[in-house]
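A quick aside before the break. I want you to see a complete sequence-to-structure record at least once, exactly as it would be stored in a machine-readable document. Don't worry about memorizing anything.
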Amino acid sequence: MPSTARRSGHHNGASLDELPAQVNRRSARRGAGRCRCAALWSACCRSPQGQHEGGVLPIARSVATSCKSSASEVASNNLSVACRYGTVSARMIVALLCGREGSVGLPGKNTYPVLGRPLMQYPMLAAMHAPSVARCYLSTDSEAYKVFARTHGWEIIDRPAQLATKEALGEDAFRHGYQVIANRLAETGESIELIVLLFCNAAAVTAELIERGIFMMRSRPDLDSAVSVSAYNMWSPIRARRETASGTLQPFVPFEAMGLDGPINCDRDSQGDIWYADMGVTVARPHCLEHMERGLLPQKWMGQRIGPLHQWGGLDVDFEWQIPLVEFWLRKHGFDETRTPYSS
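That is the input. The structure line, written in tokens, reads:
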């Protein structure tokens, strides 16, 4: 649901407590009986067919027709529901944003002012304006982050102390957050269809990018996740070096171990596009978080079969020199000091 700031198209201030509140759409969705399709919920409640599980699919077909979607799309998108005793339980898409206090490389990076807003507000805005995302959660150890997120309608997950150290891995924070969300939803008969994974220090993400990831996952049941990637050919693995004990530079990975097909030369494009997961967004299936040990290193939460969401210039911020790069990316995507691409 749009906030006052979104309706007017203006956003002010650089501190957490100065920014206007945005209303999370989850409150409106709850009014639809916790079903991700309000029309389907209404049909189930009104129809005698909705009182038993076998009557759901015919209703789903009629709703799909009115929504200009096919019945097969409704089924594949997990919009079929089980109706019992006049209630509906649905699988939903949720967003999980992770960020802790205590950054070493750039202290306070998650609230660093970027175009007049805290850095962490950009992934928040993307999730809040993605139509398919039903609920938004923040996992953090920071009381300031919690207050800010609650003001914007987010639900809070208290990040345990052992997962809030500089040695703690992002994968463990994601897994913990997923388990908390799954348990909370189970209490009301709900479950997770897809989970949108975000970092507070990764601002190169928009609602449109999230929706592209969701569409890819629903269209490609063979995928474990869809991940935002940016091409950085200048950082091809063939250019990577390590310093030896004798003080000389040698290939970080021996060329013969790379299994390269193309020529090795000084042309940065000689190996084709080199795609890096830029940490903007991961849209993952629950099993990626439930069985993370099966995922590819180093970001095991992505699973094994990873679909690329191509963009440019994505990065997660760890150093101050990266801030101008993020601001450039944001301006190119419709942000400035007073407006966002979500402004009406």
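Two observations worth writing down. Residues 37-89 form one domain. Residues 1-15, 17-88 have pLDDT under 50 and may be disordered. We'll return to this after the break.
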